[in-house]
UniProtKB/TrEMBL annotation:
<keyword id="KW-0560">Oxidoreductase</keyword>
<dbReference type="InterPro" id="IPR036291">
    <property type="entry name" value="NAD(P)-bd_dom_sf"/>
</dbReference>
<protein>
    <submittedName>
        <fullName>Gfo/Idh/MocA family oxidoreductase</fullName>
    </submittedName>
</protein>
<dbReference type="GO" id="GO:0016491">
    <property type="term" value="F:oxidoreductase activity"/>
</dbReference>
<dbReference type="GO" id="GO:0000166">
    <property type="term" value="F:nucleotide binding"/>
</dbReference>
<dbReference type="Pfam" id="PF22725">
    <property type="entry name" value="GFO_IDH_MocA_C3"/>
</dbReference>
<dbReference type="InterPro" id="IPR050463">
    <property type="entry name" value="Gfo/Idh/MocA_oxidrdct_glycsds"/>
</dbReference>
<dbReference type="InterPro" id="IPR000683">
    <property type="entry name" value="Gfo/Idh/MocA-like_OxRdtase_N"/>
</dbReference>
<feature type="domain" description="GFO/IDH/MocA-like oxidoreductase">
    <location>
        <begin position="140"/>
        <end position="283"/>
    </location>
</feature>
<dbReference type="InterPro" id="IPR055170">
    <property type="entry name" value="GFO_IDH_MocA-like_dom"/>
</dbReference>
<dbReference type="Pfam" id="PF01408">
    <property type="entry name" value="GFO_IDH_MocA"/>
</dbReference>
<feature type="domain" description="Gfo/Idh/MocA-like oxidoreductase N-terminal">
    <location>
        <begin position="11"/>
        <end position="129"/>
    </location>
</feature>
Length: 382
């Protein structure tokens, strides 16, 4: 465990990116007693002025480069388009700052590995904003699995299927070079992270995957125009990425996980996010609601005296658990910086998400099952 205490004073942070994600980091930092939010950066002058005023921030810069020169910073959040995650995170780490980076850490596993290497070389904390992990029902499921209540889990399904959330036309999300992919690398990475996290980080050896862009390029699957939508940074005009992806992931131990995600899909539910797990002692189904963690459900299925049985698992009381929001990841980040990063928090696990996604895209193109490159291999190559 490396200790990164900053003494008795608050941790001084900056946020790069003024969109939905950057504002979520700002809100979380503002309400954390151990944080002083001192600088923000982003291209939009009106947002710089508005957010600078709202969060009472002393310095608002147009670029990440300028923010990184701010003399008072201990740490930064990186909440920019994905192609900038690695270069900005690496520059921050090299400047001696701790980094909380938005997901995905990079467009590719190699890019993500370069950030992990920079964190290790500069002995700084690097966390990635997987903010779904702290939801009470997720924590309850993770505990059941860790206690062995499901037995050996041999198969699972993980999905985040959304009916109509294609990002705005012309935004960087639809640009392959800027985003590194579509629904899979954007939202699929959340449910992939959740599945691997609750399963105790099994190693995925290979994947067979498919990607589709059937609705998005035809102008379908957009959010209703009546909604007040957050604006996105614009970059290009084409629809270059997938709006639907699915894959079968094989684990080293012989188990498997089916992964499905979409920005656009003709289905009943507007937003369906969950895990189904099949174990030798019991099965479990976790369903995650949209914004409100109290709507999440967790059920366990087994057999009592030869009769199928189902139990709805009560969630831990809200006061004893985190809420599954950016406030959680910010709290965890601050704890890592001030108290040291737990030794069992392995950055190879962070890399595994990117390696699996790389292999999914490769498999989608090749039509073959593809090997997942282990994090250790990526790091030794860099
Ligand atoms: N964890 C989550 O739940 C979650 C949710 C939404 C988005 N995200 C992630 O957050 C990131 C940002 O997404 P968003 O929707 O907020 O995007 P956005 O387009 O709304 O905002 C991007 C911001 O980055 C700024 N920016 C771009 N280049 C910059 C530079 N060189 N220096 C400083 N600022 C720069 C832009 O000015 C803009 O303010 C993405 O990686 C996305 O995947 C995560």
């Amino acid at each position: 465990m490396t200790s990164q205490a900053v003494g008795d004073r608050p941790l001084r942070v900056g946020v790069v990116g003024l969109g939905w994600a950057g504002q979520s980091h700002m809100t979380a930092y503002e309400s954390h007693p151990g944080i002083e939010l001192v600088a923000i950066a982003g291209r939009e002058p009106d947002l710089r002025a508005e957010l600078g005023g709202r969060f009472n921030i002393e310095a608002a810069y147009e670029s990440a480069d300028s923010l990184l020169e701010h003399p008072k910073l201990d740490a930064v959040s990186v909440a920019t388009p994905t192609f900038l995650h690695a270069p900005i995170s690496i520059a921050a780490l090299q400047a001696g700052l701790h980094v909380l980076c938005e997901k995905p850490l990079g467009r590719t596993a190699q890019e993500a590995a370069s950030v992990v290497q920079a964190a290790a070389r500069n002995d700084r904390v690097l966390d990635v904003a997987f903010n779904k992990r702290g939801r009470p029902a997720v924590i309850a499921l993770q505990r059941l699995i860790a206690q062995g209540r499901l037995g050996r889990i041999y198969y699972g399904r993980a999905h985040w299927l959304r009916r109509a959330v294609v990002p705005p036309d012309g935004s960087w999300f639809l640009n392959q070079e800027a985003a590194g992919g579509g629904a899979l690398v954007d939202t699929g990475v959340h449910v992939l992270d959740l599945a691997l996290h609750v399963l105790g980080e099994p190693r995925v050896s290979s994947v067979s995957a498919v990607t589709f862009a059937e609705l998005g390029p035809r102008g379908l699957g957009r959010r209703p125009v009546t909604l007040d939508l957050p604006r996105k940074q614009m970059m290009g005009t084409g629809f270059e990425v997938e709006d639907f992806a699915a894959g079968l992931l094989r684990f080293d131990d012989g188990g498997a996980l089916q992964l499905e995600c979409s920005w656009a899909a003709y289905q009943d539910s507007a937003d369906s996010f969950g895990l189904e797990l099949f174990g030798t002692e019991a099965g479990a189904r976790l369903e995650i609601g949209t914004a409100d963690p109290s709507a999440d459900t967790l059920s366990v299925f087994g057999e009592v005296a030869g009769v199928p049985a189902k139990a709805d698992v009560p969630r831990p009381p809200a006061s004893t658990v985190a809420t599954g929001s950016h406030a959680d990841i910010v709290s965890t980040f601050v704890a890592h910086v001030t108290q040291g990063r737990p030794a069992d928090l392995d950055l190879h696990d962070v890399l595994s998400r990117s390696s699996i996604i790389d292999a999914c895209y490769l498999s989608g193109r090749s039509g073959q099952q593809e090997r997942v490159v282990p994090g250790s291999e990526l790091l030794s190559a860099g």
